[in-house]
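Example record

Each entry pairs one chain with its bound ligand, 4'-deoxy-4'-aminopyridoxal-5'-phosphate.
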Amino acid sequence: AQAVDWERIRADFPLLTRAVNDKPLIYFDNANTAQKPVQVVAAVDMFYRRHNANVSRAVHALGTEATEAYEGARKTLARFMKVRGEELVLCSGTTFAINLVAYSWALPRLKAGDVILVSRMEHHANIVPWQLVAERTGATVQVAEILPDGSLDLDALDKAMTPRVKLLALAHVSNVLGTVNPVREICRQARKRGIVTVIDGSQAAPHLPLDVPALGCDFYAVTGHKICGPTGTGALWARRELLEAMPPFIGGGEMIKEVSFEKTTFNDIPHKFEAGTPNIAGFVGLGAALDYLDGIGMEAIRAREGELLAHLTEELDRIEGLRIFGTAPDKAAVVSFLIDGAHAHDLATLLDLEGVAVRSGQHCAHPLLQYYGVAATLRASLAFYNTHAEIESFVAALLKARRLLG
Ligand code: PMP
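Structure tokens for the complex follow.
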């Protein structure tokens, strides 16, 4: 493979050139949302300047152009995930995608005595919908525990997959620990026991080449804004039989074939699940984002981020009193940590004064922080457009912040 010119890549991101508090911005909050290359901004801009119309409704030229652009984005995302477009429901993001599974697949099927298994490291988006379903069906939510290094306890998980378990909800990559879970092997075990698997790919899609069919899961959710696309874009992939067997979740225009007051027939999948006017411009932008990532290559991105992660981890390991949460061997470029005697929010506030954007808090993963017995962590999450020089500056700013806090 040809070497990537990372400096040239970085120049595609206009926001990264701005200053914050009179310092050059260091954006290390990529797990929260990623920055957008100028190609994405231009695609959205061009859509509104030249092609704006609603999808699948009008026969006029603009309507056709808008529909082609929207459906083109579906094809691009399908290629990115190595799945078929008709099995890909476009929606506003992972949160919607998981709720779609919860309300449309789980709610009509689960009953008292059934178990929904979720891991300790889930984002609230992969916990709360299951609690809502449990409340309404009498099913219970049980927890697959982790080990102190932030990897899943695979023996415990194996034991937890009892005949009562109907559904396993699991992150492909943890947004706090960075852990890459062995999803393929876990789904194989789940399948043998008839357990349906829902994989939250929010933090995997930005960092790894995706091959969803190879994982052997039943549902896979992604969110567009973490892969350099606009906010309010995302998708749920599911096998055709599952989608066909599921009732619609949201009703309205676009998702129907025929409507009368006596009986309504629904559109084919995936449109059956896409009621109302979608985020058309957003998906046009997402298509451009995926073309952009494809141009670099997800393998190259993984390798680059692996180097950045190794550098950051090495620097942080040198700091006395600093504890990293999540040291599993297979990790994405996300580092959560604390420094003895310094509050995470205080450090983050002082880092902001130095132009550094990191997240402090519980990262929408309260049960995970409860496991570690801490109220908050600092999280530095990297993207391929970050640099080794930024890591050096970040560490210097962190040491300065700690000195200031005494
Ligand atoms: N799951 C994980 C692991 C996440 O990191 C996030 C975003 N922080 C979500 C789900 C929710 O994604 P969204 O807000 O885009 O729906």
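The chain has 14 helices and 17 strands.
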